[in-house]
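## Example record

The block below lists the input lines for one assembly entry, exactly as stored, with component labels intact.
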Amino acid sequence: MDLQNQQRVKDAAEKYGSENVVVILGSSDAEGAEIYAETVTNGDPTFAGPLAGVPLGLAVYHVFEDAIRQEADPALWEEQIGMMEMVLDTEALAKAVAGMREQYSKYAI
Amino acid sequence: MKVAVKGTSYCLNHVPEMAFHYGNTPYVERKTRGESEFLKELTSHLQSYAKAAAYAPNLAYIGAMTLGELERHPQPWLENLAAEPVRFGRFGEIMPEDEFLGLMDISDVFDIIWLEERFSAAVSEKLRKNPVIPETLLGRLEKGHTLQEIEREVSEKDALPLYFEGKVVGCSRKGHEIDECLEAYVLLENVACKAGGVLALLHLFRNTGLRPEEVDFVIECSEEAAGDMNQRGGGNFAKAVAEIAGCVNASGCDVRGFCAGPVNAVIAAGSQVAAGARKNCVVLAGGAVPKLFMNSRDHVKKGLPALEDCLGNFAILLGEEDGVSPVIRLDALGKHSVGAGAAPQAITSALVWEPLQKLGLGFNDVDKYAAELQNPEITLPAGAGDVPNANFKMIGALAVMKGQLEKSQIPEFVREKGIPGFVHTQGHIPSGVPFVGHACEWIKAGTIRRALIIGKGSLFLARMTNLSDGASFFIEPPEAVKPAQSVTKEDIQRLLLEALSEVASSLKAE
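Predicted structure tokens for the full assembly:
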């Protein structure tokens, strides 16, 4: 996760409280999604950004997880995301993020 | 309305030492953490010229291998190098680092690049053997400076050392005492970009037979910004490149749009030619120094060579239709409008579905799509996925949504309509345009009839808008040019007689 986005997540957690922030990832790559999820829960594994050593423990989901899909307007989902569902390995993405969430998240929706 | 693609050129500049010192990832690491463990480790991941020039995707870029051959080449490509390094291909060359430093000096008109005198002499001999570099350009190579002069410029005047085989062989000097836009790093980046553009243009002359003085206009579309503190991106690379290449009758300007720049530049150039405003137009770009070794942290971590060690350059010559050269259609362009939305679905629709609709065509009427063509052996280890493959899947998925394909047919669609990613992660370079050369060859051979070239750019990186950008165009076979019909004296007499006879008849009737 780039340094600016780490800072944005950190700022949001400080401003609204970690219990009130949910991070929804749209990464197309499972390995990348896993690193992003780890960054916002256990801290930046590369120790390069503002979240290095900062385990925020935020609730983190991939947009393709059922919990998020159920929250979405079906028409809007079809218009904005339906195509990508056919393109990406949604199960692998959901599993990668869920794995990190189960290990490190202190909050959930 | 159409414009002909008269020729193309594609070159790489293999510059691992420039990448190690001035690629953004190692450069920032060195600035912020000094000679860290990562940098120490990185030195053992540098790739030799012999390996880079035997690497199949690089050979495909310069036209030393067709895309069909690349597809059939055993993977991983990294472990299946060609038997021998190949320097020249049908489109261009892979230039070694020492010669490229020489070309940078040749392209420099402000005494920014200094070379060490023995290095300069050695490079001069090598460049003399290059068939595209004329004697006039060799005369521009400086005799050089002593190593002491170079070291003093580095230690006392903020110049950046240039390296070859681990030794200092020159430096890039700053252009102003306090102007950050003219500091040594920026000028190094810009002169390298300019030199890459010059090399691509010289190869374009060789590939097309066009003489430098015949060039009417040049549009440059890299991602660099030339200017000073009063006008940070004032320009103009195009004219600077044209000057070095001897295009005395040309003018030029720059077009920018991140990775969508080249496709937008081709559309701008093609439109000017088709409108008759320019006799011909060259679209070109050199490479991006900061993007060298961009993903080297991941490559090191995974025990891979630091593959992003080449600057990418290209040039495309557009001219009037001639009945032989493949043509770009200007009546069915793809445009990602401000209101189109930023979701991949909206972007793919704007760049693929909408232009198809303008021609009354379906997804299967295009033989090959070319969007972001990054080499997956570079991007996969960095967690960025197989970018070209993802693009082809998106197009297939959109075809399913439009009822033109079954979902189960997507893998076959991707295999048939896609091409392998073979391009360095140089930002503007992978975005569609590297396929133009291969596509034109296939169209001329009758292998394909229609290709769609797609460029997409991440405008939000500049913090001016959250939007992305995109543009696309079709390439098709030429139509036979109709000979201009001339009117003879007899034709005019006949028409006059017919008209007079009609007048006489009407008078009689009255």
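Residues 3-104 of chain A form one domain. The longest helix of chain A spans residues 90-104.
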